[in-house]
Each structure stands twice: as C-alpha cells, then as structure tokens.
Amino acid sequence: SQQGEEDPQALSIQEGENATMNCSYKTSINNLQWYRQNSGRGLVHLILIRSNEREKHSGRLRVTLDTSKKSSSLLITASRAADTASYFCATDKGGNNDMRFGAGTRLTVKP
Amino acid sequence: NAGVTQTPKFQVLKTGQSMTLQCAQDMNHNSMYWYRQDPGMGLRLIYYSASEGTTDKGEVPNGYNVSRLNKREFSLRLESAAPSQTSVYFCASRYRGLDEQFFGPGTRLTVL
Questions:
Q1: SS3 of B75, please?
Q2: DSSP letter, residue A4
Q3: Do B45 and A33 touch (CB under 8 A)?
Q4: Collapsing DSSP states into helix, strand and coil, what is residue B95?
Q5: B100 to A3: CB separation less than 8 angstroms, yes or no
Q6: pLDDT tens digits for A11-68?
Q7: CB contact under 8 A, A41 and B45
Q8: CA distance linking residue B13 with residue A63, whole number of Å
Q9: Residue A82: φ, ψ to 5°
Q10: Mutation site, B101, B102, B107, B108, interface A, largest A CB count within 10 A
C-alpha cells in the first residue's frame, strides 16, 4: 500500500511555537497533499507538492518532500490556537483512485 | 458556491436496515469519491466515480453500492446495514486526477 503514515500521532505545543509533522510512504508517487480536519468537520486541502519539487511554502506552512527517503514534512510556524486540528498527508500516485490517506497527526496548540 | 454538500448529517440505523447517503457538488468536478473514517485511522476509499456514468470500487467496497446520478450527484447505499459500518462517511470531489480534493462535512452513521 502507498498509504502515508504520519508521525507523531499526537503533538501538543504552546502558541507561538513551531509544529512539525512527518509523513512516510511506501511506493512512488506523483504528488503528496496535506489536509487539515477540525473536529467534527470535513477535510480541507492545505498544500500540494509534486514529486519533482523539494520544498513549498504557503503562508505559515512549509512542506518538504524527499522522494529518495519517501518522506514529507509539514512545518507550521508561529502556531496559533486556531491551528488545533488533525493533519493528514495523502499520497497521489496518479489516476482517479490512487489517493491514499494516513491516520493523521492530532495537533493541540495551547493558548 | 455551496461546494460539496451531504445529507443527512446524522443517522442511526438498526442492523439490516437500508439507507442512502446523498452527495452533491456544484463545482463542475468530474470525479467524486466516498470515504469512511474510523477512529485512529485515515480515510479509506469505498467507491469512486472518475466521470459521469462510471463507478469503480475502492479499498473497502463490500456492503455498499453507489450511483452517479449525474455530474453533480453521487449517492452511497447501504442495502443491509451492519454494526461494522458505523463510521463517519465523507464525500469528496475534484476536477480531475492529481488535483486537490474538496470534502463535504460528513455523515455520522451509527448502526445498532
């Protein structure tokens, strides 16, 4: 399976600190996407990084991709209480059915 | 734009009952998906529809059927509900493969 696996499963930090989440996967991919899920809500797309990209930024988010290690990381800088959510990586191999989600990292940002 | 909408938001069924979960999108997306989310696990794909008129099985299709009614609507049917189908169900859509997916708010289903 190419399902991504996030690490850690849970992360608790203080407001203003940085949060780093990691994702590992098993097979070659076309792109990797990160999603956020607030409690009781649907997933919201955060950022997409293609297999030929190594780093991407979007506001306070920084994503890296290392295809040789089959891993990605999501960094949230200067975290806020509103960043409290679960974060999922999803690997996309191509085609319409080849997107696989990991189990997620639950981030808690304490005010 | 309403995005992706799902009905109902909550449902309680007894074992053996049937029901249909409805999903609609107004973004002119070609592909639509049904996932289930269980505690401690990521989303698992049940069925998908790459385009109007086509449907295909995902990772966990047993016990479910789908219908792509038109480009906007994609329904999921449980013919004979089982407690193992207690889960949160999400519908998603995207314009084409490799794009980001847009998710609905989910349906929380409990089967007693």
A1: strand
A2: -
A3: no
A4: coil
A5: no
A6: 999 999 999 999 999 988 999 999 999 998 999 999 999 999 999 999 999 999 999 9
A7: no
A8: 42
A9: -70, -10
A10: B101
